Amino acid sequence: xxxxxxxxxxxxxxxxxxxxxxxxxxxxxxxxxxxxxxxxxxxxxxxxxxxxxxxxxxxxxxxxxxxxxxxxxxxxxxxxxxxxxxxxxxxxxxxxxxxxxxxxxxxxxxxxxxxxxxxxxxxxxxxxxxxxxxxxxxxxxxxxxxxxxxxxxxxxxxxxxxxxxxxxxxxxxxxxxxxxxxxxxxxxxxxxxxxxxxxxxxxxxxxxxxxxxxxxxxxxxxxxxxxxxxxxxxxxxxxxxxxxxxxxxxxxxxxxxxxxxxxxxxxxxxxxxxxxxxxxxxxxxxxxxxxxxxxxxxxxxxxxxxxxxxxxxxxxxxxxxxxxxxxxxxxxxxxxxxxxxxxxxxxxxxxxxxxxxxxxxxxxxxxxxxxxxxxxxxxxxxxxxxxxxxxxxxxxxxxxxxxxxxxxxxxxxxxxxxxxxxxxxxxxxxxxxxxxxxxxxxxxxxxxxxxxxxxxxxxxxxxxxxxxxxxxxxxxxxxxxxxxxxxxxxxxxxxxxxxxxxxxxxxxxxxxxxxxxxxxxxxxxxxxxxxxxxxxxxxxxxxxxxxxxxx
Length: 551
Description:
By secondary structure, this protein is of the alpha/beta class. The chain is built from 19 helices and twelve strands. The chain has three domains: about 220 residues, Flavodoxin domain (Rossmann fold, 3-Layer(aba) Sandwich); about 120 residues, SCP2 sterol-binding domain (Nonspecific Lipid-transfer Protein, Chain A, 2-Layer Sandwich); about 180 residues. Helix content is about 50%, strand content about 15%. Strands 2-1-3-6-7 form a five-stranded parallel β-sheet, with helices on both faces. A five-stranded mixed β-sheet has the order 10-9-8-11-12. A two-stranded antiparallel sheet has the order 4-5. The longest helix is centred in the last third of the chain and has 30 residues.
């Protein structure tokens, strides 16, 4: 299998379209190798670094030297490689609603590949044509291009018409993507990487089936960002004031582009004013966020609801993904005052508006397991404490059955070590209670064991509660979030101490003959701790975010 990649961008290897083409070819190779043992040969031709002159229109290639151009340049090599290729991938940006001039030279110079005589074919794509001098049967073509408009739709009419003429209608596949300049913006890589992954999938499908699936086509035609968001970012990127025409400061341009990412659909009735002070530049800007969208203010005329004090170098590094925002905040590389909920929900307010979602099922149709759920751990314990306290004999059997059934009940969720230990512990304690009839002692030991689970987890790299909730904070990346980790270590220790103390006071109160009080105490304390947890996980990170000077 021979693939020829023709990169027609004047930017050469810096081409945005080339990134898409490379992703397509990467996917093609993976898909092809999964079904074939044959070797794939990839040949790249970057027209910008080649010598391909304009056609002279002399028709020497038809009359004097049939099939051979009179111009002695690199086009002879291009034709040779095109004849050898099984698939030709045309990669190019849209230039003034057509292909770049250097690529048009390559297309024009294909004339030696045609016979001079009028063709009798009627493919319905023109008023005349010429047959090819060579056997091109079976060759496939893929057109991959980006443009600077919000959408590719309607902007490639002349390109399609041209390729219809020399390739034939329906004889090639296209991937046309608007908002092409975003692929070079590192700050937007989360969204553009999603699209590149889809292009890669398209390549794999093309290798296996010879076409791109309808589902993938729909995703490829999904806008990177809504029109208003993209056009706001594009306008801001020029760095020129719309009113004065004067050049704007780089940090102001950056702030305008960040503001453009605001998703007004997240407006909850609360008007927010985000104030950002770039401490190294001594510049302060405000971003007004409401149901109409975002507006950048330079006069600090509004009362800020959330203020960020940060060096511009730090904030821009965060936006490029060079450092995690939460990690930087934990290290106090920047500080936050005011309404901290904006930071907690940052991805919701300023995150990708992509409609691309991870499929719930793999290509084999096997359902992907959900993230771990704390209920997997809690259900056996809650059942054990309640059931055995009511009736030792029957309750222990019920608890044992529930512990045995949990792997089936929660089968859609991934299991973690605390789930497994809890199932084993409850099963053992239930069996002891059933065999000995000592329900009181078993439940008391259960409180102690449960508390020790929490405390022991504080000695590991991941406290118990973080094991379950980290997926809301970037998964494994949450380990770098110092605010998240500190908060969860404290909460894990608090829950551990509570249940160890519960074991102690349960034992003492039962010995004192006031066991009836335990029903109220042992149910009230977890509720109060739950309320504390809900408050603490909001208050503590916000306190740390204010920085040492403001604590």
